[in-house]
Design brief:
With about 230 residues, the protein is α/β, with parallel strands linked by helices. The chain has a single domain, classed as Rossmann fold (3-Layer(aba) Sandwich). Helices cover about 45% and strands about 10% of the residues. The chain is built from ten helices and four strands. A four-stranded parallel sheet has the order 3-2-1-4, sandwiched between helices. Helix 1 packs across helix 3.
């Protein structure tokens, strides 16, 4: 509702090239560290903007030429039962399939990785996630809460760092593909851990929870919300 204010300019989301370039720096960092473009790129997605950004960064690296001409296979993951991108991809549909709003909300409540519950991802338009997956011969994989929790536990044991539910979904997908023999054991893989270390950060620290200065009821009039938002500028 705040977007209705004339003083607020929406930044564009996935259509904002600066946003995508910023997200793509993870690929640039990985490639310059490894010394080559990986064979696979794994990331859990809600919108898929990060995967689109990875694809675009990959194309620029190929054009640069110093790190080879390899095209990473994008493997994006969703947290079951909220899997609209997976359903559309399995149907080989550029358009998102119908998703009953009540079921979508219920499914979103059931998943651990709440940040992956985007019902309107940039999947269909030219240069969107569908095109990125097609161009890289990629795939969409699903992981359950239980699989993601096991993956997070394994990461903590092996790497000593706790990871958020979303990257745990990506790791669970990687584990599933390796165990099923769908990935060569000698392949170079980039796994994007999109959030980690929260438990470490809060350990032995006193937390301060700030209360909101204003709480609007669900029945709030939009004009009241916009007026309050404008008063903050």
């Amino acid at each position: 509702m705040v977007l209705k204010s004339s003083k607020f300019y929406p930044e564009g989301g996935a259509k904002n090239i600066a946003r995508r370039d910023g997200m793509g720096t993870t690929v640039l960092s990985a490639v310059t560290t490894i010394g080559r473009i990986p064979d696979y790129y794994f990331q859990a997605v809600g919108s898929g903007t990060g995967a689109i950004a990875a694809w675009e960064a990959n194309m620029r690296l190929i054009e640069d030429g110093r790190y080879g001409n390899n095209l990473m296979k994008l493997i994006v993951s969703q947290n079951a039962p909220f899997v609209p991108i997976f359903d559309a991809w399995r149907a080989d549909s550029r358009e998102m399939l119908p998703y009953d709003p009540k079921k979508a909300r219920r499914d979103a409540e059931l998943i651990d990785a709440k940040v992956l519950s985007n019902r309107r991802p940039p999947y269909t338009f030219a240069g969107g996630l569908y095109d990125a997956l097609k161009a890289t011969n990629g795939d969409v994989v699903v992981a359950t809460n239980a699989q993601a929790r096991r993956a997070a536990k394994l990461f903590k044991e092996l790497e000593g760092v706790d990871i958020n539910p979303a990257p745990a979904v990506a790791l669970a997908s990687l584990i599933k593909m390796v165990e099923s023999g769908n990935i060569d054991k000698d392949a170079c893989i980039m796994l994007n851990i999109t959030g980690a270390g929260e438990e470490t950060i809060v350990a032995n620290k006193e937390l301060w929870y700030l209360k909101p200065s204003k709480v609007f009821p669900l029945t709030a009039d939009i004009d009241d919300v916009v007026t309050f938002a404008e008063s903050l500028f």
